Amino acid sequence: MTERDDIVVPSDLWDRVRFNEAGLIPAIAQDVDTREVLMLAWMDQEALRRSLADGRVTYFSRSRADYWRKGDTSGHTQQLTRVDVDCDGDVLLMQVHQVGAACHLGTRSCFDSAV
Predict the structure, then answer these.
(1) What is the DSSP letter of 75?
(2) For the chain, which terminus, N or C, has the lower number of CB atoms within 10 Å?
(3) Where are the beta strands (DSSP E) in 44-99?
């Protein structure tokens, strides 16, 4: 696997990541500058590999059973700057430079309404 030098990645990333029984892991996108939580999506090993290789975040759509690189249709891209793994290895934190809306509804964040 080729990782870009401009993305901060734990050296033991592949040893720590624990994909679920469907081969997926939740990935939280966070704005690297504001620390705002933007969205949550899913990745499999290939989506993570693609994200690390080209620097644009790729997710796996469970409903379409296919890959989608954030921004290819909307223009609202996520440039990956850092990947962190939680203490259990079952959640990824993707720090990104967000261009445009992160939410498919057109809002900056999917988490924009207080309960």
Answers:
(1) S
(2) C
(3) 58-61, 66-69, 78-85, 92-98
Distances (CA, A) of 7 to 11, 12, 53, 100, 103: 12, 14, 9, 21, 23
Return the structure tokens found at 90.
């079952």
* Gap between the Cα atoms of 12 and 78, Å rounded: 24
The pTM score is 0.91
Q: What is the pLDDT of residues 32-67, one digit of tens each?
A: 999 999 999 999 999 999 999 999 999 999 999 999
pLDDT of residue 109: 94
Could you tell me which residues come within 8 angstroms of residue 5 by beta carbon, excluding any fewer than 6 positions away?
none
Average pLDDT (78-94) is: 97
Domains, the chain, in order of start with CATH, read 13-98 (3.10.20.810)
Q: For residues 15 and 111, what is the distance between their CA atoms, to the nearest angstrom?
A: 31
